[in-house]
Structure prediction request, 177 residues.
Amino acid sequence: MPKNASSVGPAVRLSRYTKADQEEILGTIDDPFGVTWTGLSWLPKEEHFGIRYDGRLVAHAGLLRLPVGIGGIETEVVGVGGVAVAPGMQGQGLARLVVTAALKHARTMGPQHALLFCRAPLVSLYQRLGWHLLDKDVLVEQPGGRLTTMPLRTMVTPLRDDVRWPSGPVRLFSLPM
Prediction:
């Protein structure tokens, strides 16, 4: 195992990301992201970034453009999800590397903000990476036209220097990512 992120390969764009790739990083555990308890259905990501070490995929972050309403204004965000670092590689800066690479690409996708959902123990990690916690509930769509309040913490980060997150209620016009 490397002692720090400088001894692993750079974060690169992946041409695909499969269930086998996820298992290469996290193993074959039943609830790799710890979110099964939410009962939510999730969208797959469309853009993928990863880090390899000794030929093995050890970190991943995915992106997806999503329609959202913020304070009655309809716009889009880049959803960030599927962030994973292999258990034996955590604490070495790989999450920072892979999320930074993903956000660099997100800046080329058009929306002004990125949004993610995370479990409470991960909030401080994302805050160190420059994300901000939303203090509002977020409504997300679920199968059958059902709307539900996102039970995970919602975080945002600007993708441009001169933008601020608008005020008002937030609704994702899709399944969460």
Remarks:
- Helices lie at 19-26, 94-106, 123-128.
